[in-house]
């Protein structure tokens, strides 16, 4: 079995799945069913700072989630605010975590591209090189490539608001 699904409680958090280097947990305050977080077990500030072995495992888990949960919820959007400095804004969590959200990313990408400078990123393996040590916002559709955006400052819960708006949910 590539991915062993488990249900455990760790400090009142449910772990939906676990691999050697990462855990899959439900997002707190989710606004759609199937909203998950992929979290490294070791501490890193951003996914771009993780070693190649972690990225490989993360890509495998993303593929599994896309295939298995995509049947229930449709296409998935993955995103991360890679906050590498305290003045870059975001949610205030200084531990890398990739959001997995069942949502068509088209409207979200259109909004992000109109607001921030960006670069296409073909793979999370290239994220470190694309961001060059800067804070970033990464966004990817489960059926196409990813993009790295470079906001100077990202307001708290920015991606939550943009994603909810795209889903037609008032926040």
Account of the protein in words:
With 171 residues, the protein is of the alpha+beta class. The protein has a nine-stranded antiparallel sheet with strand order 1-2-3-4-6-5-8-9-7, sandwiched between helices. Strand 2 and strand 3 form a beta hairpin. The N terminus is likely disordered.
Largest sheet: 9 strands, antiparallel
N-to-C CA distance: 39 Å
Low-confidence stretches: 1-11
Q: State the helix count.
A: 4
Mean pLDDT: 82
Order of helices and strands: EEEEHEEHEHEEH
Globular, elongated, flat, extended or rod-shaped: what is the shape? globular
Radius of gyration: 15 Å
Query: What structural category characterises the helix and strand content?
Result: alpha+beta
Extended strand count: 9
The share of residues in helices is 25-40%
Relative strand content: 25-35%
Strand line-up across the major sheet:
1-2-3-4-6-5-8-9-7
What secondary-structure arrangement, pairings included, does this model have?
Elements: E1 4-10, E2 13-18, E3 22-26, E4 36-40, H1 52-73, E5 76-82, E6 98-102, H2 106-115, E7 118-121, H3 127-131, E8 136-141, E9 146-149, H4 158-166
Antiparallel strand pairs: 1-2, 2-3, 3-4, 4-6, 5-6, 5-8, 7-9, 8-9
Question: Which descriptors would you attach to this protein?
Answer:
globular, 29% strand, disordered N terminus, 171 residues
Task: Offer a quick outline of the entry.
The protein is α+β, with helices and mostly antiparallel strands. The chain is built from 4 helices and 9 strands. The model is unreliable at 1-11 (pLDDT under 50).
């Amino acid at each position: 079995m590539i991915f062993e699904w488990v249900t455990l409680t760790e400090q009142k958090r449910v772990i939906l799945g676990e691999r050697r280097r990462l855990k899959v947990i439900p997002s707190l305050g989710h606004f759609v069913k199937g909203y998950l977080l992929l979290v490294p077990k070791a501490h890193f500030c951003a996914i771009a700072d993780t070693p190649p072995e972690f990225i490989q495992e993360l890509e495998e888990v993303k593929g599994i989630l896309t295939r298995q949960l995509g049947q229930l919820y449709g296409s998935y959007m993955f995103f991360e605010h890679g906050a590498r400095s305290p003045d870059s804004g975001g949610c205030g969590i200084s531990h890398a975590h990739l959001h997995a959200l069942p949502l068509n990313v088209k409207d979200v990408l259109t909004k992000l591209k109109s607001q921030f400078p960006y670069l296409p990123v073909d793979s999370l393996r290239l994220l470190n090189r694309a961001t060059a040590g800067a804070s970033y916002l990464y966004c990817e559709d489960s059926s196409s490539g990813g993009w790295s955006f470079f906001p100077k400052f990202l307001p708290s819960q920015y991606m939550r608001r943009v994603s909810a708006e795209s889903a037609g949910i008032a926040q």
